[in-house]
Design goal:
The protein is built from six helices and seven strands, in the order βααβββαβαββαα. Strand 6 and strand 7 form a beta hairpin. The radius of gyration is 16 Å and the shape is globular. The protein binds coenzyme A (COA). Coenzyme A binds next to helix 1, strand 4, helix 3 and helix 4.
């Protein structure tokens, strides 16, 4: 399939998705995308934890739709174990929409949304077996560290100023 060139982007509070069919569509995409990576790390898809994060009162989700279906999304929330930081919960693009314009469109929208936020660093976790995401995190300037308590998973963090001034952020602001 040739990916459509235009996407309908909306930004929602995760809480507003409770009991909504859209939440199931989002979780289904997450599961479809992540199951193989998690399986290779010997872990099941963390269904309950993912639901808690998605519906968390501080969660914001940027969703791109094409022809009515979810083509991709990114969501983030306040990081309770690192007060003052934000946690990038998930970034997912349906297979048919990868390698096109969508990842950059979501990233540009995320950076714009983060402009209005006070935070110290953006953090996330990346599976060591997820080569694509590791390469993307490095390109964005994230610092990656092994997690001694969770072998196979890395802590990724990127300070707010470094994120704002990165070459990629400047390029996306101009686009
Ligand atoms: C991760 C994901 C969102 C990226 O979207 P995408 O459309 O595949 O990304 P793009 O093709 O636009 O590539 C983005 C950048 O990463 C680079 N990249 C992508 N895959 C790569 C790989 N395997 N190795 C090295 N670089 C890679 C691209 O070269 C591009 O960099 P550039 O803009 O400097 O050229 C998408 O692949 C996805 O949903 N994957 C499954 C879910 C997942 O792993 N999510 C992250 C964990 S929560």
């Amino acid at each position: 399939m040739t990916p459509p060139r235009s996407y309908q982007i909306s930004i929602l509070r995760g809480e507003s998705l409770r009991d909504c069919p859209l939440a199931e569509e989002i979780l289904a995409l997450d599961r479809r995308n992540m199951e193989a990576t998690l399986r290779s790390a010997g872990r099941p898809f963390p269904e309950q934890r993912r639901r808690q994060t998605l519906f968390h009162p501080s969660n914001r989700i940027i969703i791109a739709r094409a022809g009515g279906a979810v083509a991709g999304y990114v969501d983030y929330l306040e990081y309770s174990s690192h007060p003052g930081d934000l946690y990038l919960s998930s970034v997912q693009i349906a297979a048919a929409h990868r390698g096109g314009t969508l990842f950059r469109a979501l990233l540009a929208q995320l950076l714009e949304d983060l402009e209005a936020r006070e935070f110290t660093a953006l953090r996330t976790h990346v599976q060591g077996s997820n080569a694509a995401m590791l390469a993307i995190a490095r390109k964005l300037g994230f610092t990656l560290r092994e997690r001694p308590d969770h072998p196979g998973t890395l802590d990724a963090s990127l300070g707010r100023e470094r994120l704002r001034s990165s070459r990629l952020a400047r390029r996306l602001r101009r686009a």
